[in-house]
User: Which sequence fits this backbone?
């Protein structure tokens, strides 16, 4: 029997499914993207607000992302007072609570933007996470179609500010009142049909993914996918399915033709015709501002999957082709969406407060920008690293670092216990632009040795012989100790 000590068992170093770690390159690229979005939002007069990641569960209301599991769609727990709390599943419900709570102190209309993580207690899958970031902008307190039109124009401007050119995106607009008119006409009006209405909405929302035939199955008995999983349908009869599909196919050659077709589909429905009127007003405003050049389109296939939308709804779709994991060339699809939700704030105040807004899926948009080469994928430039050549000179090395930091230059002293070779490897892993070396010879001469790691790496590409490497000593030079800061400034200025 072996006397070797048994290895202690400990927790497994693994993430739960549906969550992801992020490294420096991804964080830097995302932050740059968020800064660009923020500038566009502020250009339109929106201001920042932040709400916490946890809300009272009742504040989230019935508008959960997964109707089939209404008590499991969010992560929830009880506090010491036995009150149920939940991680937010979007940024809209917390905004509604915030506006209701501070209603009298806020200017109306209230224009705000928010960025943050949201959480979904759903089955994770490819591209489907339990934690992901959104960046929202909303106008609360205006019933004017101009507020909806403005959100759509801001969405278009945001895409272009991020480097997505015209023709590579489109903002598609519809109105839930029009669809409500269709649903009323096929007998799905009223609170008792809320569940079936949501099933219909989700079926239409899959139009791009499954096509008319797939949606027809989801509107009827249901659909079985390639894996054999069955999705229960809305149970509509043939006539009702035909009317819903006629609605989704009402898009014409231009906004005028589309609006005429929609008016025909909802003929006899007061609510449906009101929705067509709102779309007509939006189309006029969009045209007056010059955004009717293909950037913003009226499209009846846009429905959005949540029940709380009450009027115009919109999606930002990227239209350029990408290659998926299976090697298929596909369109990238939706990266943002939203609409009018006049009932959310009313849940808290007992009176209707009109509101409209949209949300950008940050991770999805970042992936799109990366595929276009518009998002930096390189590791961010690290700090200048001062190597520790002599243990009894640590105070002097620390003084060098202090001088560099006081000059606004990102820097650090090596804090490990390894020799020079390992320290150089460390600096390389830190993506340091340069290292500073001072041994006894340099100290006696009142100098430091600076090794430019960026230039050295470039030079090394053309050097194949070790003797040549030693002879060339690429990108290494001496500088007076008293001129250290200026020498580093000059090196960094070369890029």
Assistant:
């Amino acid at each position: 029997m072996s006397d070797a000590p048994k290895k202690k068992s400990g927790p497994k170093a693994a993430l739960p499914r549906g969550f992801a770690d992020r490294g420096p390159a991804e964080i830097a690229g995302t932050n740059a993207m968020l800064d660009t979005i923020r500038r566009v939002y502020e250009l339109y007069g929106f201001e920042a607000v932040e709400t916490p990641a946890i809300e009272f569960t009742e504040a989230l209301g019935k508008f959960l992302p997964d109707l089939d599991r209404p008590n499991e769609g969010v992560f929830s727990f009880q506090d010491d007072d036995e009150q149920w709390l939940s991680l937010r599943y979007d940024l809209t419900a917390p905004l509604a609570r915030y506006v209701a709570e501070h209603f009298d102190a806020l200017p109306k209309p209230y224009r705000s933007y928010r960025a943050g993580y949201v959480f979904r207690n759903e089955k994770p899958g490819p591209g489907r996470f339990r934690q992901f970031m959104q960046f929202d902008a909303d106008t609360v307190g205006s019933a004017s179609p101009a507020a909806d039109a403005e959100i759509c124009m801001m969405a278009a401007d945001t895409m272009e500010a991020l480097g997505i050119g015209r023709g590579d995106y489109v903002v598609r607009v519809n109105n839930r009142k029009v669809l409500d008119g269709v649903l009323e006409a096929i007998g799905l009006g009223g609170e008792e049909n809320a569940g079936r209405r949501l099933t219909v909405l989700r079926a239409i929302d899959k139009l791009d993914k499954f096509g008319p035939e797939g949606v027809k199955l989801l509107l009827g008995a249901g659909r079985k996918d390639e894996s054999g999983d069955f999705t229960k349908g809305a149970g509509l009869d043939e006539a009702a399915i035909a009317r819903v599909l006629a609605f989704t196919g009402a898009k014409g050659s231009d906004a005028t033709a589309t609006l005429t077709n929609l008016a025909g589909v909802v003929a006899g429905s007061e609510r449906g015709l009101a929705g067509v009127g709102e779309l007509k007003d939006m189309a006029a405003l969009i045209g007056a501002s010059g955004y009717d050049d293909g950037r913003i389109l009226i499209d009846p296939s846009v429905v959005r999957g949540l029940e709380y939308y009450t009027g115009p709804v919109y999606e930002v779709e990227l239209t350029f082709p990408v290659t998926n994991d299976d090697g298929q060339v596909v369109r990238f699809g939706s990266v943002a969406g939203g609409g009018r939700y006049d009932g959310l704030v009313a849940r808290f105040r007992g009176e209707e407060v009109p509101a409209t807004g949209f949300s950008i899926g940050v991770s999805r948009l970042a992936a799109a920008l990366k595929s276009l080469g518009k998002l930096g994928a390189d590791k961010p430039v690290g700090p200048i690293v001062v190597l520790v050549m002599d243990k009894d000179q640590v105070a002097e090395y620390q003084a060098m670092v202090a001088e560099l930091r006081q000059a606004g230059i990102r820097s650090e002293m090596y804090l490990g216990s390894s020799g020079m070779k390992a320290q150089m490897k460390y600096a390389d892993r830190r993506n340091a632009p340069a290292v500073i070396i001072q041994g006894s010879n340099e100290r006696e001469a009142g100098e430091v040795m600076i090794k430019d790691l960026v230039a050295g790496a470039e030079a090394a590409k053309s050097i194949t012989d070790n003797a040549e490497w030693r002879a060339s000593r690429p990108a290494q030079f001496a500088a007076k100790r008293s001129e250290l800061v200026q020498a580093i400034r000059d090196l960094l200025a070369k890029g």
Notes: The longest strand covers residues 312-323. Confidence is low (pLDDT under 50) at residues 63-70.
